[in-house]
Recover the amino acids of this structure.
């Protein structure tokens, strides 16, 4: 295990800077996710950590060892890292156990010890019954577990995962999230995981680093970033959110299209604002209290019901529980209660939501 320290790290390709003065520290034994849209720099960071690329400037430390910086560039094989790619990258002519044993064979470990450790690892990743099979005889999820077993048998101080679940179907992807997280926790290994899937980041991470245009927009535990995003880009990328223009004045926020007032947050200066409201943070009901609206459309999703409610000039999205589809019909007069909102100074939404370099 090892902590990772990145100091003033930059990377440019053909004069275009794709990583800008990155300064972060990943704690020993922490599961860190690099999250962001395509082209934001997350895979570049992973390749720099692995030693496949040399930084334009800055330093990378794994534990107490400087692996990149100045004239130092430690090759990948000397960094004591494991890496699992988006493609399974398993040897097609080797059996499951031969694939898993590869890093131990390179070290010339005695055969008896190699066999014992491979057997134990295959049990850990639930592949012991497939030890003699070739990769072509396995499912995608099983092949990805072979790649994971091989990486872990090398006993790396740092495990790098580059979108390892993106080629799997939805149900398998969901189950593999928990398997990888549980395995990392069990082994106490430091993990840096790259994805553009916010659900993966939310369920697996101790901390998320959300990147945009080569810079970290916000970092922290998933619940903190989800509940308290620092800007509309973060709010929009992590979860569902609807934005509305308004104006803060006299302790209230006037929502322009809603034609109603909300309580102010006590922090935002008076003037134009953008209000972000997650659809699951609006309660829909019948009665007298709350903001008046009319159900326009509703979509039954099984575990939830997705409403569109007309409030003033705005069509407001509301996500409620699956049973609520029994209680409302299009045309019904309803009341809405805002349970939680996010207020950002300024109302230039397109500028605030830029997600590309």
């Amino acid at each position: 295990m090892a902590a990772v320290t990145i100091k003033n790290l930059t990377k440019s390709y053909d004069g275009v800077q794709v990583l800008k003065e990155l300064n972060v520290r990943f704690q020993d034994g922490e599961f860190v996710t690099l999250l962001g849209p395509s082209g934001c720099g997350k895979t570049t960071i992973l390749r720099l950590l692995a030693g496949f690329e040399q930084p334009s400037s800055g330093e990378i430390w794994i534990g107490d060892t400087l692996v990149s910086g100045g004239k130092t560039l430690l090759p990948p094989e000397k960094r004591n890292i494991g890496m699992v790619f988006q493609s399974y990258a398993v040897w097609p002519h080797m059996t499951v156990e031969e694939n898993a044993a590869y890093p131990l064979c390179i070290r010339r470990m005695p055969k008896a010890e190699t066999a014992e450790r491979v057997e134990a690892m295959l049990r850990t990743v639930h592949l012991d019954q497939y030890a003699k099979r070739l990769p072509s005889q396995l499912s995608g999820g099983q092949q990805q577990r072979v790649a994971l077993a091989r990486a872990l048998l090398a006993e790396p101080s740092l495990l790098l995962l580059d979108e390892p679940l993106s080629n799997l179907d939805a149900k398998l992807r969901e189950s593999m999230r928990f398997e990888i997280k549980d395995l990392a926790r069990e082994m106490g290994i430091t993990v840096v995981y790259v994805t553009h899937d916010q659900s993966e980041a939310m369920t697996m991470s101790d901390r998320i680093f959300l990147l945009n245009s080569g810079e970290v927009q916000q970092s922290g535990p998933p619940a903190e970033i989800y509940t308290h995003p620092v800007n509309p880009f973060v709010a929009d990328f992590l979860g569902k959110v609807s934005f509305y223009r308004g104006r803060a004045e006299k302790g209230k926020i006037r929502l322009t299209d809603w034609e109603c007032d909300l309580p102010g947050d006590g922090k935002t200066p008076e003037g134009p604002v953008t209000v972000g409201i997650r659809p699951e943070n609006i309660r829909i009901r019948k009665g007298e209290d709350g903001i008046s609206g009319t159900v326009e459309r509703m979509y039954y999703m099984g575990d939830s019901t997705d409403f569109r409610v007309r409030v003033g000039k705005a069509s407001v999205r509301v996500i409620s529980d699956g049973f609520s589809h029994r209680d409302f019909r299009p045309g019904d007069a309803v009341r809405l209660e805002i349970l939680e909102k996010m207020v950002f100074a300024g109302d230039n939404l397109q500028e605030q939501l830029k997600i590309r370099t």
